[in-house]
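Table S2 (continued). Query chain:
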Amino acid sequence: MASGELGRQNIHRAIGGFAAALAIDRRLFPDEVRDVVESGCIQKFEYCVELFWKHLRSRLIEEGIDVANSPKGVIKASLSRGWIVEDEYASALAIFDDRNRCSHVYRESMVPEILARLPRHLAVMQQVITRCDV
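Corresponding output:
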């Protein structure tokens, strides 16, 4: 199997798992379990974000587009390529801001805010990947 196809399968599988995690009604669980489920959602988000930008970078390279080796550079190139539409651009950048908040400056007080934005982040990633993989 070619590495491009493997990357495509990985991102689709990861996004499917992220969507399934977000579909869980966390209110049904006691606080201790809810905390674990929410942590799992955030961890799946972080994993998807890494696969997301790396998949976009690989697709850009496949198309012969010179691209910076950074997430925001890849997002900008994906906008130019048409995989990200203008009204998604700020949302796409916000995905990386929230990933950085989770990974680098984790504060428990930020968790509810980030969790509330995860469905939008998922929708943007799904839309972009769909355009990218056509």
